[in-house]
Amino acid sequence: MFASIKSEDEQAVRVRKVLLAVAAVVGVLFLAFLALVWWGSRVPRRPTNISPLGVFLERGAVPFELSMHGEWLDCWQDVHTNTDQCRLTDEKGIPEFEGTFVPYEGKAIIPLSELKIDATKTGHLWMGVIPVIFLQNGIILLPKSDYEESKKTVDFWVYGGGKR
């Protein structure tokens, strides 16, 4: 009788050890998963050719990435040409596009104090490799090199088929 109680106790101890081992493995895997999600959701280091006002535009958001993919976008005033310039680079700062941008309405230069990119709206509407740029003050910037086509795209996608 004592032998059967002892063997039942030994069996219960073994089961408890196995359950603890399984729980430990599951816990470690869960922590590793959380670490990968955190690592993959970090914004890459700002390249040296992007000003503090530049924004990161995430592209191809896929859950559980091991790295975040996207482009950096930066705009500034060129005092020599009196134009608004914008640069799009990859995560490492390698330029993909740089050019003059003009407002959707009118051709006036945007004051530097208002040239702040709205990172939540910008990056959802593209003209090939060039994004339509939404500023925080509501102004939309279009690439001067492809203004008419960009304007048609904004008319259709932003204003529902026609100018507002």
Brief summary:
This protein is an alpha+beta fold and 164 residues long. The chain has a domain at 55-157. Helix content is 30%, strand content 24%.
Average pLDDT works out at 84
Radius of gyration: 27 Å
As a percent range, the share of strand residues is: 15-25%
Extract low-pLDDT stretches. none
Helix content: 25-40%
Structural class: alpha+beta
Main sheet properties: 6 strands, antiparallel
Q: Given the C-alpha coordinates, what overall shape results?
A: elongated
What does this structure look like?
The chain has a domain at 55-157. The chain contains two helices and eight strands, in the order αββββββββα. It has helices at 2-40, 147-157, and strands at residues 55-58, 70-78, 83-89, 95-103, 126-127, 130-131, 133-134, 140-143.
Q: Topology of this protein?
A:
Blueprint: H1 2-40, E1 55-58, E2 70-78, E3 83-89, E4 95-103, E5 126-127, E6 130-131, E7 133-134, E8 140-143, H2 147-157
Antiparallel strand pairs: 1-2, 2-3, 3-4, 4-8, 5-6, 7-8
